[in-house]
Amino acid sequence: MKSMEGERLMSIRKYNAEGYYDPTAYEALIRIERESKKMPFRPLVYICSPYSGDVEENVKKAREHCRFALDSGYIPIAMHLLLPQFMDDNNPKERDLALFINMVIMSKCQEVWVFGDRISAGMAIEIAKAKKRGQGVKFFGLEYKEVSEDA
User: Fold this and answer.
1) How confident is the model over 93-137, as pLDDT tens digits?
2) Do residues 21 and 86 make contact, with C-beta atoms less than 8 angstroms apart?
3) Strand 44-48's sheet: what is its strand order?
4) How far apart are CA 123 and CA 112, in angstroms?
């Protein structure tokens, strides 16, 4: 089937699964398909920054780091903003599970971006794992300038 622009849309059909003509769903799917083609590719980037310590300030900074990544053309993943919503960082079993979850999610990201002037124990584990996997690891200092790992 051809859309108005003439591109081939093999997976979008005018008939539903039961074989009935369904023009409303068809037009909605065509619109979604067109819009998705307008969006540029955005790689996933894992946000690695401190959580423990001054949690309130660190969460605020992690949000800023995510905004920086988004504005730079990436899709930020900051598990330390998500997991504490339902997991207890002070419970050793849940912290270990959270670190495991982080490693799984981090493996799906193209790069790991490290922020902050200190490397926490959890961050050190994430950085080491990313390097072992051969993932790109970038370090950012003040004003989001990329710095060397030793800085």
Assistant:
1) 999 999 999 999 999 999 999 998 889 999 999 999 999 999 999
2) no
3) 75-77, 44-48, 111-115, 136-140, 146-147
4) 11
The CATH 3.40.50.450 portion of the chain extends over: 44-147
The residue with greater pLDDT, 29 or 45, is: 45
The answer to whether the CB of 98 falls within 8 A of the CB of 79 is yes
Q: How much is the pTM? A: 0.74
CATH class of the 44-147 domain in this structure = alpha beta
Reported residue count of the chain is 151
Angle (deg, nearest 10), helices 121-133 and 92-106: 30
Task: Determine contact, residues 48/126, Cβ cutoff 8 Å.
Answer: yes
Helices (H) and strands (E) in the chain, counts: 5, 5
Could you give the CA distance from residue 142 to residue 36 in angstroms, rounded to a whole number? 35
Contact 94, 83 (CB under 8 A): no
Q: Residue type at 43?
A: P
